């Protein structure tokens, strides 16, 4: 079993969730400072005139939806129209009511941060399709519809919705950050950066600057906004909430350049009033820069940060619980599923739980992510469900695998051979996997392969004292505490 090593390059990539989540978490407009977009749709003034001429619900809803997309919160006519909608809330849809509430910045009830109910998705899509049919210029509704399509795996439909939203509101923060995360989900960082870098608003908006720099650095792409971002941080009087991601982004950049003292100072500023994404970045980077952070564990939706913290403190069951909340909060993201299956399988030796996690929480990712697929197959084999393991294993396209994935592939194939009683072939495949990891200089891969080879040799009654000694030395060197406490190594631990 394994988890993706690429995550060693974590950046503050924007989260993606429906509009009401973003609003609730304070990511739509700066607190105490209305944000007026430099973009105003051509039809905006026409919609305003239609409302003023005929004060009826359809005109009010259309006008307010457009004002919300334009971020024109200071428009007194839009305020009046929003209040009119709420006074007639029994006659409008739930979404129309929410739009009016969001425009007036009326906080709604705390979301449950669980976006894993697929039955709800289809109902949401049905509602949103009706809404955009009636009010086609509401970019926010298009983005929300894209989100639910993406989680269900309908990426073509999600792409269409995102394209419409970007055409309607190319200078809207919520639209741009959502589109960024969608294109990263589609493994197209260049397209994500295209829209961020071509938006005039990015040069002035701290949230968009953080997103542009983070994506650029995560994928080794060019950015020209670092100097602009540093100047903004030095001069801005925006609330700490709105600067948190940017402070964390520049702090990460300084740490990558070996400037830990500057990075610590920046992260202290980032954590004055952080969102959960910034807290997760601080938790991730704290060990490498020697920064002992005192995180408020009551930060909303801080599931990733808690997952990392409890993993670090060897509280693996609690870490798993937080990781499961994280994957339900970001259901289209593969890494929390990778980590959850790793914790369940490697740290807790609960392979039945691995199967449950994949089947219940990530069925759509099973055939899209090699690490998840491998961890699933490994768990089947560890439970001696060999026929099912081989069936899943046969569906892997070996030619398309990366070199690290091919090494893992051979190790898992070795496990299957061991469980079928083909011991010599199992050893040969594990040896090949280890050689491949050695060529890749992946100490983690080497250690895990040797650990599970030791497990299999011990299971069939062979003397594994020397093997245990070697794995313990490697695990201690790498800080793989989850291996040191396992039954496989109990003879020396």
Stated plainly, the CATH topology of the largest domain is called Serine Threonine Protein Phosphatase 5, Tetratricopeptide repeat
Assess the beta-strand content as a share of residues: under 5%
* Count of DSSP-assigned helices: 26
Q: Name the helix and strand elements from N-terminus to C-terminus, one letter apiece.
A: HHHHHHHHHHHHHHHHHHHHHHHHHH
Q: Which structural class do you get from the secondary structure elements? A: mainly alpha
Give the mean pLDDT: 89
Description:
This protein has 493 residues and is an all-alpha fold. It folds into 2 domains: 9-185, Serine Threonine Protein Phosphatase 5, Tetratricopeptide repeat (Alpha Horseshoe); 315-489, Tetratricopeptide repeat domain (Serine Threonine Protein Phosphatase 5, Tetratricopeptide repeat), CATH 1.25.40. The protein has helices spanning 19-24, 44-53, 57-69, 76-87, 94-103, 118-134, 139-151, 155-168, 173-185, 189-198, 206-218, 226-235, 240-256, 260-270, 276-289, 303-312, 316-329, 335-347, 351-361, 370-382, 386-394, 403-419, 423-439, 443-459, 465-478, 481-484.
């Amino acid at each position: 079993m394994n988890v993706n090593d690429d995550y060693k390059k974590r950046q503050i990539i924007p989260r993606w969730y429906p509009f009401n989540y973003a609003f609730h978490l304070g990511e739509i407009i700066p607190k105490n400072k209305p944000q007026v977009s430099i973009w105003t749709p051509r039809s905006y003034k026409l919609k305003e005139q239609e409302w003023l001429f005929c004060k009826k619900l359809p005109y009010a809803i259309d006008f307010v939806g457009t004002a919300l997309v334009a971020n024109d919160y200071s428009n007194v006519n839009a305020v009046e129209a929003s209040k009119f909608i709420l006074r007639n809330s029994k006659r409008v849809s739930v979404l129309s009511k929410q739009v009016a509430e969001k425009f007036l910045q009326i906080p709604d009830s705390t979301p449950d941060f669980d976006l894993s109910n697929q039955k709800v998705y289809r109902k949401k899509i049905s509602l949103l399709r009706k809404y955009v049919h009636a009010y086609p210029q509401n970019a926010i509704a298009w983005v929300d519809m894209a989100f639910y399509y993406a989680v269900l795996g309908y990426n073509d439909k999600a792409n269409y919705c995102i394209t419409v939203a970007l055409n309607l509101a190319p200078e809207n923060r919520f639209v741009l950050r959502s589109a960024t995360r969608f294109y990263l989900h589609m493994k197209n960082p260049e397209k994500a950066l295209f829209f961020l870098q071509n938006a005039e608003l990015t040069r002035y908006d701290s949230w968009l600057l953080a997103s542009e720099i983070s994506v650029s650095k995560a994928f080794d792409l060019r950015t020209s906004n670092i100097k602009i971002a540093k100047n903004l941080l030095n001069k801005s009087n925006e609330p700490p909430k709105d600067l948190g991601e940017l402070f964390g982004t520049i702090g990460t950049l300084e740490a990558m350049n070996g400037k830990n003292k500057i990075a610590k100072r920046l992260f202290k500023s980032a954590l004055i009033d952080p969102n959960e994404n910034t807290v997760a970045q601080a938790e991730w980077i704290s060990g490498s820069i020697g920064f002992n952070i005192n995180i408020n564990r009551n930060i909303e939706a801080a599931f990733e940060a808690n997952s990392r913290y409890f993993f670090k403190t060897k509280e693996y069951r609690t870490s798993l619980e937080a990781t499961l909340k994280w994957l339900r909060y970001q259901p289209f993201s593969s890494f929390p599923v990778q980590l959850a299956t790793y914790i369940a399988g490697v740290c807790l030796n609960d392979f039945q739980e691995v199967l449950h996690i994949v089947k219940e929480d990530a069925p759509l990712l099973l055939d899209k992510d090699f690490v998840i697929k491998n961890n699933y197959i490994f768990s089947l084999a560890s439970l001696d469900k060999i026929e099912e393991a081989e069936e899943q294993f046969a569906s892997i396209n070996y030619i398309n695998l990366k070199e690290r994935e091919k090494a893992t592939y051979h190790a898992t194939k070795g496990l299957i051979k061991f469980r079928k009683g083909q011991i010599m072939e199992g050893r040969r495949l594990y040896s090949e996997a280890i050689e491949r990891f050695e060529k890749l200089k992946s100490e983690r891969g080497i250690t895990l392969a040797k650990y599970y080879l030791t497990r299999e040799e011990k299971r069939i009654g062979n003397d594994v004292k020397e093997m245990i000694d070697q794995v313990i030395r490697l695990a201690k060197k790498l800080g793989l505490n989850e291996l040191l406490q396992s039954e496989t190594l109990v003879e020396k631990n």
